[in-house]
Amino acid sequence: MSPSACSRYLTGFACLVAVGCGSSSSGGASGGGGGSGGNCTGWCCPEQNTGSLEPEVLVQEQHDPCGLALDGSTLFWTRLDGKVMRSDVSGGSVQELFDGADFLSCSLAVTPTHVYFSEQEAGRVLRVPRDGGPAEELAKGQGQPGAFVLGDGVVYWLDHGASAVMSLPVDGAGPPQVLAAFPKKAGGLAVDATHVYTIVGDFKDGRALHRVPVAGGPAEKLTETHGSGDIVVDSTQVYWAEANLPGRVARAPIAGGAAEAVQVNEGLPVAVALDESSVYFSEGNGISAQYRVWRAPKSGGEPELLVNGQCGPYGLAMDATRLYWTNQYSGTIGSAVK
Questions:
Q1: Which end of the chain has less neighbouring CB within 10 Å, N or C?
Q2: How many beta carbons lie within 10 A of that of residue 27, not counting itself?
Q3: How far is CA 33 from CA 198, 271, 289, 327, in A?
Q4: pLDDT tens for each residue of 184-224
Q5: What average pLDDT does the chain have?
Q6: Which residue in 305, 333, 282, 320 sits closest to 68, CA to CA?
Q7: Do the beta carbons of residue 123 and residue 151 sit within 8 Å?
Q8: Per-residue pLDDT tens over the stretch 35-82
Q9: pLDDT-based confidence at 234, cuts 50/70/90?
């Protein structure tokens, strides 16, 4: 997190550890620079890129860019200062879609007509036309809503305060419905044609991956996990990030079964994304400033370091040829040819 975001939760030495290596009296992380996506104004220590891809900076001077989504040829992202932004995939035509006073979640979902997101402290779920226009409130009284995903005509999110999976038709008709509620904290969300997946539990009592039918019904425990984080799913496997030390990206069959590690190392995995053959994940370690993006084959094998020397890579998105990510601490959107 940047100094501004960090100060919401941590103070003193804890804040310095969270943002990486050292402090800066000037604060801030706007602007970018260099092919590596570096220049973090003292709040982390970008290194020379030694990954297999050549990164470039598409968009600069963003304040804490966090969640990222790609729809067609347009990128959308949330900023922790309360803004929702968009640009084309070349980084041009940057446009502000929403400007609020609240802290936005690092998650958003995009349909052909709207962008769905939330104000964390106000507990509001909103949508805004993807080409610009007034925002519409869809739900209120939520407990730090986030983790937005899209199903078949339905948007889902987590009400973290109630440990509940919520659902609402994308047209906003009717009040939001509780698809499932859990006695322990739920984290991360993914959806396929038949189920919604989330990780439930805590450090003390342990965590487990669960799934809930999209049509409603009891939750089913699939496997134990070491932590919770971003979740994605394909036709056979569920993949998720475990932001513990050491960090791990893991997977398990969608019908349940033993979890297996895709990658284990000293970094903290943040976001996870899939294409037909590979799983991609961003990684940040606030102590050693190991900010990297990785790729691992779904079929098994050694992960490949794609990009390092980044500055807080968080949200991930991709199309057929390129990978995109937010650099939260340097205020940039990065990209590389896959």
A1: C
A2: 14
A3: 37, 23, 18, 11
A4: 999 999 999 999 999 999 888 899 999 999 999 999 999 99
A5: 85
A6: 333
A7: no
A8: 444 444 444 545 678 899 999 999 999 999 999 999 999 999 999 999
A9: very high
pLDDT tens sequence across 157-190: 999 999 999 999 999 998 999 999 999 999 999 9
Whole-angstrom distance, CA of residue 310 vs CA of residue 268: 14
- Beta-ladder partners of 269: 283
pTM: 0.87
Q: Which residues of 295-304 are buried (b: 16+ CB within 10 A; e: fewer)?
A: bbebeeeebe
CA atoms within 13 A on the CB side of 299: 2
Beta bridge partners of 108: none
Residue 322's closest CA among 58, 33, 30? 58
Alpha helices in 113-185 (DSSP H): none
* 23 contacts 16 by C-beta, under 8 angstroms: yes
**265: CB partners within 8 A, 6+ apart:** 246, 247, 283
Candidates 262, 274, 194; CA nearest to 233 is 274
Residues 6+ apart with CB under 8 A from 122: 102, 140
Residue with tokens 């009592």: 205
Distance separating alpha carbons of residues 164 and 169, to the nearest angstrom: 17
Q: What are the tens digits of pLDDT across the range 83-132?
A: 999 999 999 999 999 999 888 999 999 999 999 999 998 999 999 999 99
How many Cα atoms within 13 Å fall on the side-chain side of residue 132? Answer: 6
Best CA proximity match to 197, nearest among 212, 176, 184: 212
